[in-house]
Specification:
The chain has about 350 residues and is an alpha/beta fold. Helix content is about 45%, strand content about 15%. Strand 3, helix 7 and strand 4 form a beta-alpha-beta unit. The termini are far apart.
Length: about 350
Amino acid sequence: MRRVRRAATIDDVAREAGVSRQTVSNVLNAPGVVREATKARVRLAIDRLGYAPHASARRLRTQRSSTIGVHLDPFAGGISGVVLDRFVHALTERASDRGLRVLVYSARGPQEEIARLRDLREGGEIDAAVITGTFSGDPRIGWLDAHGVPFVSFGRPWGNEPSDGPPHLWVDVDGASGTRAATEHALVTAGADVAFLGWPAGSATGDDRERGWREAMVAAGAAEGARLFAEDDVQAARLVALRAFAAGAPDAIVCASDTLAVGAHLAAVSAGLAELPIIGFDNTPVAEALGLASVEQRPEEVAAGVLELLMGDSGRVIAPRAVASDAPGAPSRSHVLVTPRLVVR
């Protein structure tokens, strides 16, 4: 009769690593309090024995779900939505590496999302949340803060910072840096007349990306190129670009999204300007397939920044206002601004 091998226990790991049971527990649940050499020895023992901590038992012991809730935006089609999909995928992978789970929930608007977060929090299903698509006056931020729910936003506060306490934790992509790099590249490789195709004024993200174009043009001493407006729609961008070409084509176009860049590219092809340099933003598979240069947001780095802020040095999910440098387990900063990179094709 074949003997079934007994599953390794935390005591087995402690004996193998030559440490106490508590030290193994600290490596699993609070790695920030353990020396690197000791952590390495314990993790080697875990790998050697194939030890797998029992997640449900840990949740019962700590009264924590070890789960982060993240909003899944409604499917809207289009080109650039893939960036958030990549972010959620990366967040799930990296959270798993830290012994955490990600629970994805849906909501059709801010108030419905607040109701969903309330249910998940009161039901003990999540310990913390990650919100996306922040905007000026965002009610989710006030609700999360008022109810003591640890959270990080993928997106800057855009005017939502509290006046009576530390800022909330956030991670964002430096859009201005991305369009600045794109414009500088166009100025060097194409010419001094670089136009910008962006969304109508009033979008915080869009205005930030426009700022990078303007700064690069001023720094180069170039005359300000045409500022073209279009909703984030391929056909709308195509029509706007065609009208602009009728008055004379620029040397290059920097766009606020790949959706706009694809529309401008289609217009350029139909106007006999197939070689016109057009640079998008998001580095989607569509931009790659068409051979368009684009700004890569690096959503994997955004996910890493979210977990860094949310968990702090202690490896535990922290309270949203624990951002002072002397707060136990607090991160050393209240935000992470990821620098994107220009992908030239």
